[in-house]
Amino acid sequence: MILTGLMYAVFILLPGYVAYAAAGYSVDEKGSFARIIYRGVAVFFVVNALAVICTGTPAAKAYWELLRSTPENMDNLVFIGTVTIYVFGGFTLGWLQLYLEYKTLWSAKKEIKGWLSRGTAVLEVMPGNSLKRIFTCYRLANKKPFVSIYFDKDKCIEGEVLKYCWNGREELLLRHADTCDLLVVDLSKCSMVKFKNIHELGDSFKFKKKEITYLDLIHPGLSELIKEKTES
Q: Which of 52, 99, 102, 104 has the most CB atoms less than 10 A away?
């Protein structure tokens, strides 16, 4: 009975962990276990729903037989195949979360809210990660950020950002401007990040027959503000 319970725990915890990690989160974060459980239960529900829909097929019959069996008489190949399906389901869920974050939600915001026509006097109040949004815009524009990172008013380093990570804690892989040394910067230890080449995101691309700049993806009207400052 205990081993059977452990099998069910594997079918929930394993895909939940995979989904959580694939979405870019760290299991060391506070409250991560509950979110892992939520994702694992979601994958478990979807897999069982698919098994119900496909009732009568050899795969579904083998799956239901596995759930009814005990560790002593279970089919090891079916167990390994089921674990593989759950891992794949967890990875798909995590990837889908990233896709929604970077593509679908941004597209919906651009299309529904129509903030491009609001002008420059817009104050955005929203949950999210501003750094992640800015670095994503650099990635979409195929540009590398050049930043100045301040730790206090007297200490600053400059360089080109090669990688931005947010797994648990936010970090930058930085190529130092003067020495070309590679530095790993813990963003929780710095006080400010200044983007020196933000104007390079002024390029535009077409979306729904409209011309949109990467700067306006960061904040509506930002391209006009930077253009005014540059021309003045």
A: 102
User: What pLDDT shows up at residue 206?
Assistant: 63
Within a 13 Å sphere around the CA of 179, how many CA atoms are in the beta-carbon half? Answer: 6
In the chain the domains, ranked by start, together with CATH numbers, are: 2-110 (no CATH), 120-231 (2.30.30)
| Type of residue at 181 | D
Burial of 12 (0-12, 13-18, 19+ CB in 10 A): buried
* 229-224-160 Cα angle (round to 5): 70
pLDDT at residue number 107: 60
pTM above 0.70, yes or no: no
Distance of CA 26 to the CA centre of its chain: 11
Q: What is the pLDDT of residues 127-154, one digit of tens each?
A: 567 888 888 888 888 889 999 999 877 7
What's the confidence (pLDDT) of residue 231?
64
Note the maximum CA span of the chain: 79
112 to each of 185, 220, 223, how far by Cα in Å? Answer: 37, 14, 20
